[in-house]
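Weekly puzzle thread! Below is a chain. First person to post its structure in token form gets bragging rights.
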Amino acid sequence: MKHSVLSIILLVVVFTSCNPESQKIEMANNVEEFNEMVKNLQPGDSIVLANGIWKDAELVFEGKGTNENPITLTVEDKGKVILEGASNLQLAGEHLIVSGLVFKNGYTPTNAVVSFRKNREEMANNSRLTECVIDNFNNPERQVQDYWVTIYGKNNRIDHNHIVGKKNLGVTMIVGLDTKESIQNNHKIDHNYFGPRPTFGNNGGETLRIGTSHTALENSNTLVESNYFDRTNGEHEIISNKSCQNTFKYNTFFECTGTLTMRHGNETLVDGNVFIGNGKPSTGGVRIINEKQTVINNYHIGLTGYRFRGAFVMMNGVPNSSPNRYVPVINSKANNNTFINCDHILFGAGNDSERSQAPRTSEFSGNIIYNDKIKDIFTIDADISGITFKDNLLGENGETSISSGFENAAITLVKNEQGFLIPTSAKIKNKVTISPNIATKENTGTTWYSKADTGVALNSGKTIKVDAGINTLYEIVKESEAGDIIALEEGGTYLITKAVQINHPLTFKTSGTKKATILFERMMAFEIQNGGSLWLENITFDGTKSPDYAGNSVISTSKNSMLDNYKLFIDNCEFKDMVVNHSFDVLRVSKGTFADTISIQNSTFKNISGHIAALDTETDDIGAYNVEYMLMKNNTVTDMEGAALRLYRGGKDESTFGPFLEVDHNVFNNVGFGKKNKYNAAMSLYGVQVNDIENNIFNNTKGLKMHLVVGEPIVNVINNDYYKSGEIEVTGDEKYNIKNLYNIEPTFKEGTFELTEESSLLGKGTDQKEIGIIANN
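Winning reply:
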């Protein structure tokens, strides 16, 4: 028999030698056999699942073991029992142990993959889930909600599990407090590996939640200890604490966007955790809301997040708040924490007409703040007289407007034996240490399931040359693999009569100076499907062969929901003569699709009846949107009837990050005047969180419309030339920055949109370069 089964036999022999009761080990080969075995389980019994694929396996594991003789569900060989399709597991009873299961290639038919209850009356207590794997076990519909692990009952342990790749709506792991039997539960969640969770682009992407707003004042008494959170980037709240008296110790957060958030509930302890940002955008630390919170001995390095995702955030609250809103911070402390090269610490964050109550009777003491680039990382958004500051150390060049409680010190960073940069100084009273119990990638999860990234990057595969001709691109894509580069003939002409479906990362590019030309007879040339990403370089797209239909596009996302976030890069391409009918877009996206990045650079767009990109299909106004990072740089857009860009994020939800928009060094000429342009603007931006619009020429073009909503958006419209163009219309009650708006007639070199040597716009960019496109970029 295999090693795992032998281990069980040895354990049973030990138990049997001191217990006269008969104990059984039974091998189940299918669900029917498993169900029969469960009916007769006694303390000390074990069920072993046979190696193989268990498809559509809904397992209910119930029984009453004892502390000395638990009932066990395990596998013949770890990693060789795979639950696929419509599979899940429910536990009910006492002293149950589950180990070795792998869930992948499917999704739960219920609301949870693993649940510590059969129903609201029958749940598991004193039980354990260990060394199990849930890997990309997602419902194919992005907006269908489920959870991966739901924990109920009392005294349960969830440890050494490998949980990676949740992409659909729903928290990865929850602790439920919806019955009195699950309150004051004393659960322990430890040594789990929470692998990458991509940005969800909507609320509902937390990795761990304890309680809900309805149970905010109930004591959960859950311990979350020594877990490794690896790029769990679903939304603002990596962990959402929504109950009282929970403890978070020795966890590591590696390049995670968002924060450990004390959203509801009191008396939380956050002690000895490590937050590693490595300079990645939106990486954060701890956010305090509510009363009697304690944040001590935590180590933060390289965190860049701002506002609600700063390295440390103490919120403003709502006076006399209900438990499920923003309870003011009272009697809370953040002491003896270390911040190395972090960008933002905030006090009174979220201060507005509703959240008007500043923190009271709270403390920020004994902390070390070192930054070798930014002198003052503190943002004070409200009255801080209710916070006591004392014995905090800043680096030699550190500054703060806070009047007392800070002292400068000569601080040196020394790498310790664990690899962490530790601040040392004669003025440091308590030596900074990292607990030996801190989570690492190596000491969490299973020992037998790989933590290696499985994604394939664009431009990482082989190069495949493809001859010009009819549907040669369509055929070559069917033979391609993820990461491949499709090399087009210089000057070649390619006709597509069947839309090219992109279901893995692919690049299409022309080498040499003369671009290849792609014409297409379908309503789209490329369709990005789930799993696909696309890079287009040095190619001309000609719309003259396209069908006489309204609503064509060069690139379209799948009409169905896409679980996987995609990327789109367009560089040095030409798009022309897309006027066979109205509303001919370059990019058209569908609801339920989300791009991590859309980058359009060094390209030209001429004679187009639609838009470059209409990223506005998430119209439910719940905070959802279509793209995280949108970049338009060094492009010329001329004679476009639609808007160059429409970007929409509706609603007032504050749990997401983007969109982030950069529009830099472009020329927009005669844009937006088409009768079908419902936006009546050259660019329409709604709810965008970061707007950097700099160094552009708007010449004889419709106006720019911006509507600013919650989230304290950053708006910089700087050093742009706005000649004979519509107004810049900004609505909403948020702040914005518009400056150096020129009204100078641009003079271009003949046949181009490069400025003449006599132009007054030379040298007027924020980078001291010309406004508009940069020649020979």
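Puzzle host: Confirmed. Bonus trivia for everyone else. Residues 613-777 form one domain.
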